[in-house]
Amino acid sequence: MSKRKLLSYQSRRKLIINLVMLIITLALLMPLWYVLNNAFKVEPEIVRRPLVLRPQDFTMDNVIRAFRALKYPTRFLNSSVILVLSCFFLITMGSAAGYGIALANSRFLNRIYTILVAIITLPFQLAMVPLIFMLKAMGLINSYLGIALVYTGWFLPFVIFLYTGFIRTIPKELEESARVDGCSLLQGYWHIYLPLLKSITGTVLILRGVPIWNDLLVPMITLTRSTLATLPLKLYSFIGQYGAAMTRWNLVFGGTFVVSLPILVVFLALQRLFIRGVVAGAVKG
Amino acid sequence: MAKRRRFSCFLFTLPALLVILVFFLSPMLRSLQYSLTDWDGIAREAKWVGLKNFIWVIAESSFRQVFINTFYLIVLYVPVLNMIALLLAIAVYNVGKVGNVYKSILFFPNVLSMTVVAFIWKIIYSYDGILNQFFRAIGLEVLAQDWLGQPGTVLPAMSVSIIWFAIGYYLLIYLAGLYAVPVEIYESAEVEGVNPVQKLFRITIPLIAPSITINIILSTIGIITLFDLPFVLTRGGPGYMSETMALRVYSYAFVTLQTGYALAMAVILGIFAIIITVLQLQFLRRREEVLL
User: Fold this and answer.
1) Could you tell me how many CB contacts below 8 A there are between chain A and chain B?
2) Is A182 helix (H, G, I), strand (E, B) or coil?
3) Which domains does chain A have, with CATH numbers?
4) Which of A209, B103, B219, B241 is positioned for an S-S bond with A205, CB 3.0–4.6 A?
5) pTM summary value
6) Cα separation of B4 and A106, whole Å?
7) Hey, of A125, A135, A179, which one would you mutate to test binding to chain B, going by the most B CBs within 10 A of its CB?
8) In this predicted complex, what is the ipTM?
């Protein structure tokens, strides 16, 4: 009897929490619904009925016009090249460095590792100004390579931290037995360790790939030529054209929607990976 | 042999160390060095001017406002964000499997570009935006106002939009902390008849203290260095009422082209971030020890 009562209390509690959570989640979704439904609505209705999409008001106009005005395919390509190049550097250099630090067991490298961990949280603004002048002097302004190297230098300490921590959890015997079999350090890295680093590489891609894809500041200061603009940068300048009042709401809604579409698709496909990645990154930090 | 191996290991770290050194560390050190000179970024020669740049930046009439804004934003953002994220994490923890759905939805804004997030909220807060429409619809016409255009409302409004963006991330970290607590502890507490409030303050919070420490530090550094969202949302306006140190570094460097002041401002921002982090870390670590 008392057990049954306890159960019903438990399930009642669960129901209440669920209800509250449902309301909160819906409230948090409102801004997204606001964009989504208005991206597909004829302009006068946006202000008149901000949260309802009636079939007779449906239009693809906003999205198509924003797509054209943003020169979407070029921007998408720019963003992609920068993302791929940066992530390539982060993963290759980061995993190699993590491998070296974790296996060396040397006081010197451990000290370097401590320094790397300490500089993870230093603000980018502290490096920003001399960095830009240096890039200019090196001819790396308006260059995919230049912007990728900026992200690489900025994010590598954190990426090395993740890889080193992960490789340290792999039993040392693995590498020792490989060495006995005549495997060189490089072979060990390529054939034995790299295949084991898939999950942590996923974490790295999510924790640093998403911010790179979404970033506005670094493209804004390193890519002054408009043909090189990334999606967020183009969105910013394109809506800026219509002034602070942003009177052309249909274009703003259409633009924010098309710019967010790729990440939305990736997120829906890889939700679990995203959530695991954040947790893995934070628990180590 | 061991020596040679160690050297090979060092070679593996070399490319990464070089890139970090050239593209991150050395520019930082140069900021420190050149902030004390009249270097303009182009001239080879730089004359030592001592603290002149710093004095000029601090003496500027709006500096006090910028400093206060940065500080006020921390106060508006960090405690509120962490309290909501913790409560939501506890709720998600308690509902079982359905929690995964809430978790995904609440996390989603975090993968959007801050440029997009800023535009969304710019429209929400605008005069004909959904927020004011809502207040008018429920008869609270008096509350309809220009949220981003007034000194009193701009920073709280900005803070809400950042919380909306960030909440899911911090929720996930708290949730990981909650899952690490052994279930037996809660079960025995239940048997002893501990009420939910006691449970929160006596059991949950002490046991997830490390997650709280991580989150408070991360959210503080995050808000101090945040650029994209405030830049697109208000660009520091109206006047200087929402300008932060991070925005000011940018405007000195790339709008008014005053390199020396930009460097001084960046150094002030860096020192401010380091001091706040160290203070918080010391305080929170001590609390952790007391609680455990």
Assistant:
1) 260
2) coil
3) 4-12+15-57 (no CATH), 63-283 (1.10.3720.10)
4) A209
5) 0.92
6) 12
7) A125
8) 0.92
